[in-house]
TrEMBL record:
Pfam families: DUF3450
Protein name, entry field: DUF3450 domain-containing protein
Keywords, alphabetical: Coiled coil, Signal
InterPro entries associated with the record: UCP028069
Organism lineage: Bacteria, Pseudomonadati, Deferribacterota, Deferribacteres, Deferribacterales
Coiled-coil positions: 42-90
Species of provenance: Geovibrio thiophilus
Signal peptide segment: 1-18
Length: 249
């Protein structure tokens, strides 16, 4: 009987031990699975950490490059602003010079026009039209200043050449209110004279009144002789004509 009880106790103890062993095994397996999962997650985390560190280094380098580029842009912008300010200053100075030059050229043309208006009426209209054209040319905004200066200086040269040039032409003029046909002698920019073909009337151009006024008829022959000299129809000879007082303005 005792043996039977002992056997039963041993069987019961073995069963209990087996159950506990199964629990221990299950626990160990669970711990092993968790460790495996932990190690796997840790490896993934380490890889992700390395990847993130590489991305951080790349981004840090990119930020440094962008900051350097931005600094370069700011420097370039400052230089461009300085150059723009200088350009605006030069443009303003150039505009002042251009305006001053145009004012000076207009004044020169005005003076030239006043001299032209004091010549004989035979050439006044043609020369006045040339001056008016030049005035409009100087005022044109799309013409280079150098070209304006050249044209004005050219006009002065033309007038200077004309002042050394003598001519005689047939035309009709008004002398003391009377319309007469005859010859007009222009002695450069010095004086202008008129005579009728028959020599009965002689006249000179008065710059003050801008009209022809009568002279002694004895000058008619001198005008005709002067005209023949101008046209090279006579040998050189001395001609006496009253040029009057030369006014300096």
């Amino acid at each position: 009987m005792n043996k039977i009880l002992v056997a039963l106790c041993v069987m019961l103890a073995g069963s209990a031990y087996a159950a506990e062993a199964d629990k221990i095994l299950d626990l160990q397996k669970n711990i092993h699975d968790k460790k495996s999962g932990f190690y796997s997650e840790n490896e993934k985390w380490q890889e992700e950490k390395i990847n993130l560190e590489q991305q951080y280094i790349h981004l840090k380098r990119a930020v440094a490059e962008k900051e350097a580029y931005l600094k370069s842009l700011k420097s370039s912008a400052a230089e461009l602003k300085t150059e723009a300010d200088r350009s605006r200053s030069r443009i303003a100075e150039g505009q002042k010079l251009k305006t001053g030059l145009e004012t000076a050229l207009s004044y020169l043309l005005e003076k030239l026009g006043s001299e032209i208006s004091s010549g004989d009426e035979a050439a006044v209209q043609e020369r006045s039209e040339r001056i008016e054209s030049l005035v409009a040319f100087v005022a044109a905004p799309d013409v280079l200043p150098a070209e304006k200066v050249r044209r004005v200086m050219e006009a002065y040269k033309v007038e200077a050449d004309m002042s050394r040039y003598a001519e005689i032409r047939s035309m009709s003029v008004t002398v003391n209110g009377e319309q007469l046909n005859g010859y007009v002698l222009r002695a450069g920019g010095l004086a202008g004279f008129f005579t009728t073909p028959d020599g009965t009337t002689a006249a000179f151009f008065n710059p003050s009144s801008k009209q022809f006024e009568k002279l002694d008829s004895k000058y008619s022959e001198e005008v005709i002789i002067a005209g023949e000299l101008v046209n090279r129809k006579r040998m050189p000879a001395l001609v006496t004509l009253p040029v009057g007082r030369i006014e300096v303005q």
